[in-house]
Amino acid sequence: MTISAQTGSIASGSPRLDALTARGRTFLGSRHAIMAGAMSWVSERHLVSAISNAGGFGVIACGAMPPALLEAEIAATQARTSKPFGVNLITMHPQLMDLIAVCKVAGVTHVVLAGGIPPSPAVAAITDFAKLVAFSPNFALARKLLRSGADALVIEGSEAGGHIGPVSLAVLAQEILPALPDAIIFAAGGIGRGEAIAALVEMGASGVQLGTRFAASAESIAHPAFKKAFVRASARDAVASVQFDPRLPVIPVRALKNGGTEAFMEKQREVAGRLEAGLVALPEAQLEIEHYWAGALRRAVIDGDIEGGSLMAGQSVGMVTAEEPVASIIDSLVLQAESALARHAAPLESALPEPASLESAA
Questions:
Q1: Cα–chain center distance at 338
Q2: Contact in structure between 205 and 320 (CB atoms under 8 Å)
Q3: CA nearest to 41, candidates 299, 251, 225, 316
Q4: String of b and e for 221-236 (b: at least 16 CB within 10 Å)?
Q5: From 41-45, 172-176, 267-271, the region with the lowest mean pLDDT
Q6: Minimal CA–CA distance to 27: which of 179, 131, 143, 149?
Q7: Which helix (H) or strand (E) covers residue 135, if one does?
Q8: Which of 256, 263, 342 minimizes the C-alpha distance to 308?
Q9: Helix (H/G/I), strand (E/B), else coil: 221
Q10: Handedness of CA 207, 209, 213, 215 (dihedral sign)
Q11: In CA terms, which of 236, 265, 355, 359 is 20 to 30 Å from 318?
Q12: Which ranges of the chain would DSSP assign to H, the alpha helix?
């Protein structure tokens, strides 16, 4: 394999991985079919451009940004990279259509929609100028999203960080990939090494999405204390939040267990009590919960409050062992994946002892 002197990333020499991810790479327009998960307060201009420049596919996390702020973030990212990148929008954002319009004017090529089934007007508006990627936590929704106009899917398992579905990627991959062989599907959730990438693309994934490995990278603007928490953590430290009241549906969030985890339970109790007393309507109650998470995440990422803030992380956090440059992370993932694929392609006979060895052993 050759290494680019300019970016430090692998420029060529991964033929098996390239062949298996050809559709994904063509769809993204990137050197490698490695998407970056959109992480609020983390996936901004510096990290997104670094990932795209290193051969991956960066994605801006719009989150609760107003249109003007998103416009500025896209422009700043474009100033740092000439490579393709995407923008992640949340379907429940009250200004969703305005944000889509910003993406269109800015020439964004890929829009990733998260947060439930996308409204049809949003799908129509996005597919008019860009490729649409949607999230699916189950097979039924995957089929529905493709029929509704999504160009590609991310199937995200419960091992992921942030908002998660109920099923592991190990199960989702077996259920969805063989059943939708013609779809462009990126696998996500708990991926921390290239060997997992190799297994998933051999199963039929067009590529993968990772977030946790990049959150603690050198180019991430996250607070040093936030990154150190990732380096110290093990997989079992990344736990999913518990729903306090079934009348107040809350999408589980996976994060490192700390004081903020307990504070979230208290927040749910408080909001549920006001909901029961008729002091707040259900939509407002749900939005209040989402705003709580956004604020808690900012305290951890920007302010470094690792005790009271939200340390959203996937179970792959145990594979974050140091603060590394993005290019090094991508290079190692590709090398590991290609090495695993090469081992898989080796003749079975080469792994067996010679008959003479068997006799001598006896």
A1: 21
A2: no
A3: 299
A4: ebbebbbebbeebeee
A5: 267-271
A6: 131
A7: strand 131-136
A8: 263
A9: coil
A10: positive
A11: 265
A12: 15-20, 22-28, 45-53, 67-80, 96-106, 120-127, 139-148, 169-176, 194-203, 212-215, 224-232, 259-276, 282-301, 326-345, 355-361
Dist. CA 108–CA 94, nearest whole Å:
20
**The dihedral of CA 172, 174, 175, 176: what is its sign?**
positive
Check: CB of residue 276 under 8 Å from CB of residue 264: no
Sheet of 110-114, strand order: 34-36, 207-210, 185-188, 152-156, 131-136, 110-114, 85-90, 58-61
Mind listing the domains of the chain with CATH numbers? 9-222+322-344 (3.20.20.70), 234-301 (no CATH)
Helix axes 169-176, 194-203, angle to 10 degrees: 20
Least confident of 57-71, 146-160, 244-258: 244-258
Nearest to 212 by CA among 262, 161, 152, 273: 161
Contact assessment for residue 16 and residue 334, using Cβ atoms and an 8 Å cutoff: no
DSSP string computed for 250-300: ---EEEE-SHHHHHHHHHHHHHHHHHHTTSS-HHHHHHHHHHHHHHHHHHH
Residue closest to 205 by CA, chosen among 260, 136, 141, 147: 136
pTM score, two decimals?
0.90
Backbone angles phi, psi at 314, to 5 degrees: -85, 170
Q: Is 38 helix (H, G, I), strand (E, B) or coil?
A: coil
What tokens were used for 231? 């380096």
Encode pLDDT of 64-98 as tens digits.
Answer: 899 999 999 999 999 999 999 999 999 988 899 99
* Structural contact between residues 277 and 259, judged by C-beta atoms closer than 8 angstroms: no
pLDDT of residue 9: 42
Q: What is the mean pLDDT of the chain?
A: 90
DSSP string, 174-193: HHHTTT-TTS-EEEESS--S
Name residue 280's amino acid.
V
Residues 110-153: tens digit of each pLDDT: 999 998 889 999 999 999 999 999 999 999 999 999 999 999 99
- Written as six digits, the tokens of 127 are 């597919």
**Interatomic CA distance for residues 58 and 330, integer angstroms:** 12
Rounded distance, CA 157 to CA 138, Å? 9
